[in-house]
Amino acid sequence: MKGFGFTQHGGPERLDWVDVPEPFPGPGEVRVKLAAAGFNRLDRFVLAGIPGVRVELPHVLGSDGAGFIDSVGPGVTDLAPGRAVLLNPGRWDTTCPACLRGNEALCPEYRILGEHTQGTLAEFAVVPRRSVYPKPERLTFAEAAAAPLVFQTAWRALLTVGGLEPGETVAIVGAGGGVALAALQVAKLKGATVVVLSRSEAKLARSQELGADATLVLPPDGSFDRSLWQWSGKRGVDLIFDSVGAETVPRSLRALARGGRVVVVGGTTGATVPIDLRTLFWRNASLRGSTMAGRAEFEAMYAALADGSLRPVLDRTFPFSEARAAYERFLAPDLFGKVVVA
């Protein structure tokens, strides 16, 4: 089976069409014929190589996908071939204490489609039955393939880990990427006042069209903590959603209100940061990490997608045959939304 991926870790120059074994469903599994697949920032890290994560080579990228049921394994009796579906890229063992408590994101065996397994940028993907959901009729296949990873990440980070309450203030550091745009929508759905920060005035204008209450241009010296402090009336921000990492987290902490939280969902600019502990204890603030989501969180997010409360933002859709061009677009500095192949 052909897939878009790599035979050796490295940069974009390593990407090409690769041959991998065609997958077939085992007990409790479903094979999906992919109609669309989306790129995520995770694909960049998988391609480069994540310390401690071994992947089968050749490796196919892609965590998000939507398509049609092709076949089912033994024990799957409630799905028939031809059903249009989208995939939850998260996997867990169902038996550990965290899973039994309904907090699957903390499962020691938690895995992600396309990171720990072959991905969705291929003809077929095989997943557990619990990872398959009917494609909402209001979504195209491209939109369905743009939603699962970023929206579940934003949902858990803001609502479960961040403890966001209606009326609180939220700052989203960075605009244009899929997870930031998902966070904007989730925060507004919860009733927060949202400010978005970016170096791009064009991205800020589009963020306002999506519902941002305010926007701030990131200063050249990166001192957005001062900008947020002034914007908040020198009170600070209740919750800061930071997917940038080392370049921004220390300033995010300085911009917090008393009792404020910084939730980190990524480390694009680096993984190690200096922290002034006095800011944390004096303001009763906290720095929290979050990734992906549990089953109940995913299903709550999925319901909001199905009823139109949340809507994927597409930057551009490419044919599967143009996956390389799609990945190049995904790396473009003016990216706004998700890049999908369909």
CATH homology-level superfamily of the largest domain: Medium-chain alcohol dehydrogenases, catalytic domain
**Gross CATH architecture of the largest domain:** Alpha-Beta Complex
Q: Helix count, per DSSP?
A: 11
What proportion strand?
25-35%
Low-confidence stretches: none
Averaged pLDDT: 96
CATH class of the largest domain: Alpha Beta
The CA-CA distance between the termini, in Å, is 17 Å
The biggest beta sheet reads: 7 strands, mixed
Pairing-aware structural class of the strands and helices?
alpha/beta
> Which word captures the global form?
globular
**Topology pattern, helix = H, strand = E:** EEEHEEEEHEEEHHEHEHEHEHEHEHEHE
Give a count of the beta strands, DSSP E runs of length 2 or more: 18
Helix content: 25-40%
What's the alpha carbon Rg, rounded to whole Å?
20 Å
- Tell me the count of domains: 2
Quick gist of this model?
It is built from eleven helices and 18 strands. The protein is α/β, with parallel strands linked by helices and 342 residues long. It has two domains: 2-147 and 312-341, Alpha-Beta Complex (Quinone Oxidoreductase, Chain A, domain 1), CATH 3.90.180.10; 152-289, Medium-chain alcohol dehydrogenases, catalytic domain (Quinone Oxidoreductase, Chain A, domain 1), CATH 3.90.180.
